[in-house]
Design a protein that fits this description.
The protein has 394 residues and is an alpha/beta fold. The protein folds into 2 domains: 244 residues, Response regulator (Rossmann fold, 3-Layer(aba) Sandwich), CATH 3.40.50.2300; 128 residues, Response regulator (Rossmann fold), CATH 3.40.50. Strands 8-7-9-10-11-14-15 form a 7-stranded mixed beta sheet, with helices on both faces. Strands 3-2-4-5-6 form a 5-stranded parallel beta sheet, with helices on both faces. Strands 1-12-13 form a 3-stranded mixed beta sheet, covered by helices on one side. Strand 9, helix 9 and strand 10 form a beta-alpha-beta unit. Helix 1 packs across helix 2. The radius of gyration is 21 Å and the shape is elongated. About 7% of the residues have low confidence.
Length: 394
């Protein structure tokens, strides 16, 4: 088992120096260190950019700190960032570019589970590891049969808990709050429908009733048909499997129709953008998120201080600490792998093979994986919008 003991924050590095180090690719120093790159694929131009930018900047921070501390002797690290716009086709094209870039040794990202599902065959064929800190679609690791789980991709591991656990967590929360009748809606994409299906099944298994179950197009803005059906059914809770733009539209339309019951959802809706888009109607929304609030992570305060000092133009989001740990997991493996392989391209397959046995103590706590590539330490936190801000529910 490979245990990674790389030193942590280099918080004293100036912001300008951090960003320069993260993006460096052409060393003009006398030593002219060799270059190894960590790829980042995330929604940076379009799609769920609030999440995508935080993922990118967190990897940039990890790489800058590694360069400043000389974590990979004889090598300069850089970040190769490509946009996926939360779109599988764009993500797959980005994956092909990563495979073709011989400096890239592994990839962190993307935010969206559907984008990972689309690009993973391309990355796997190129022996490129995908180390993820945001995907929750259960089938990415276990396949479609929970009765007979089978690892799907040899090059994929994730640091966050999947929806088979998150959906049950949310159903337990709903039942504990005394909710008895739910109206459930989801976007069409697999990760959204998966979460909603798991929630609905667990809610019913716990004694609740699902009075409405509807699937709407991805990124839908008109939820009036579902709202009308829900009003007629009279639920005491509405559950959405989807992302914050659709949840914000749903909340506003439900309030306008007099459907003033609690709205619940998963990590995809837990973003400040939901509050900004839904306005006063966001009050009382419940959402889970992967992991813990940044202040409760073992090294969360240090990470946040370093991130703020670097002056990035976007917040890290809930997924930044996981992306940071994903990058550091990769970085910690590189000295030995590059010494043995000689080049990033030659080290790819060895890195893939090393991941399942790797362990790391990071910002988010213990990092380790089971035989399917899932984290051994899934954690979820419940939040509520209170006085216009997300607040932890104790």
């Amino acid at each position: 088992m490979a245990k990674i003991r790389r030193g942590w924050a280099v918080a004293a590095v100036a912001a300008v120096g951090l960003l320069a180090a993260a993006g460096c690719s052409d060393s003009k120093s006398a030593e002219a260190d060799k270059v190894v790159a960590i790829g980042v694929i995330s929604p940076q131009v379009a799609g769920l950019t609030d999440f995508g930018q935080g993922i990118l900047h967190s990897v940039e921070l990890a790489v800058a700190e590694a360069n400043a501390s000389g974590a990979v002797p004889g090598w300069t690290l850089k970040v190769v960032a490509l946009d996926d716009s939360s779109n599988g086709e764009i993500g797959t094209a980005a994956a092909a570019k990563m495979v073709a870039n011989e400096q890239v040794v592994a990839v962190v990202g993307p935010y969206n589970s559907g984008v990972s599902a689309a690009m993973l065959p391309t990355l796997e064929a190129g022996n490129l590891a995908l180390v993820n800190g945001s995907n929750t679609l259960t089938s990415l690791t276990l396949g479609d049969s929970m009765a007979s789980p089978k690892r799907q991709f040899s090059n994929y591991v994730r640091l966050v808990g999947a929806d088979d656990k998150q959906g049950k967590f949310l159903a337990e929360v709903a039942l504990a709050r005394g909710f008895k009748k739910a109206a459930v809606v989801s976007e069409t994409k697999a990760v959204s429908k998966d979460l909603a299906d798991i929630f609905a099944g667990a809610f019913e298994a716990g004694g609740g009733t699902v009075a409405v179950r509807t699937v709407v197009p991805d990124a839908a803005t008109d939820l009036s048909a579902f709202v009308a059906e829900a009003v007629a059914a009279g639920p005491d809770v509405v559950f959405i499997g989807g992302e914050y733009p659709v949840a914000a539209a749903l909340r506003k339309q439900a309030a306008a129709a007099g459907l003033n019951v609690t709205l619940m959802g998963g990590d995809g809706i837990k973003d400040d953008a939901l509050i900004a888009q839904a306005g006063a109607a966001a009050e009382g929304v419940l959402a889970s998120s992967v992991g813990l609030p940044i202040a409760k992570f073992p090294k969360g305060a240090e990470f946040q201080a370093a991130y703020d000092k670097a002056g990035f133009p976007h917040p890290s989001s809930a997924y930044g600490p996981y992306a940071y740990d994903a990058a550091n997991l990769i970085i910690g493996l590189l000295p030995g792998l590059l010494k043995e392989a000689g080049t990033p391209l030659a080290a790819r397959s060895a890195l893939v093979a090393a991941l399942l046995g790797a362990t790391y103590e990071g910002v988010t706590g213990k990092v380790a994986f089971d035989e399917f590539g899932d984290t051994k330490y899934p954690v979820f936190t419940l939040y509520v919008v209170k006085d216009g801000a997300w607040t932890v529910v104790d």
